[in-house]
Amino acid sequence: MRSILITILLLFSATANSATITIDFESLEHSDPYITIDSYSEDGFLFTVQNSLLGVRGTTDAWYAGSTALYNGFGGKETVFTKGGEAFDLLSIDVSEIEIPLGSSTVTFTRDGGHSQTFVTDGPFGFETFLFDSRFLGATSVSWVSEFGTPIPQVDNIIINTVPIPATTWLFGSALAGLGWIRRRRTI
Questions:
Q1: Beta strands at 45-49 and 79-82: parallel, antiparallel or unpaired
Q2: Contact 119, 160 (CB under 8 A)
Q3: Secondary structure element (H or E) that encloses residue 130, with its range
């Protein structure tokens, strides 16, 4: 019986590997000038914006930056993405300007309503990759907002590490189950 319990503990204590995913919005590719949507979901992540719409430039639009990307329809509105409360590591994001006047877009990303990081594009039209600092590890929600008076930014290629349930959680849970089983055996 002890060997069965040890086997169960070993099975549950095996670590799950994290997975790196890229949210690339390619499923939204189209040839119209642009489309608007209420929300968007990819790889379990949900993108929403309050009191506004999300937009996607089409491949034939003059402001298509070479890759399908998501933008918030109006500057100053907050766009939020989450994975149903699960933790994730936000590693990097590509940002490009989208509207005239061209110039630098200023966009601020905020993790779980706390730590913020601001990126400023260099002005020429096209995507730039920005890296997040270590305080964006283990986030459960990230929002971004663009500064009024700067070109609206569009985002693409969001690189995220999914955070697995720690092995210690499984080990603790299986140990509790084992203790319950042992106690039950003693009372019989």
A1: antiparallel
A2: no
A3: strand 128-131
Domain residues for the domain of 187 are 1-16+165-188
Both 63 and 130 in one domain: the answer is yes
Please give the biggest Cα pair distance in the chain: 79
What was the pLDDT predicted at 185? 64
Tokens of 122: 């260099």
Tokens at 166, concatenated: 């720690």
Structural tokens at position 69: 């990307």
Torsions phi, psi for 91 (to 5 deg): -100, -50
How many domains would you assign to the chain?
A: 2
Q: What is the pLDDT of residues 75-119, one digit of tens each?
A: 667 899 999 999 999 999 999 988 666 678 889 999 998 999 999
Tokens of 134: 């270590």
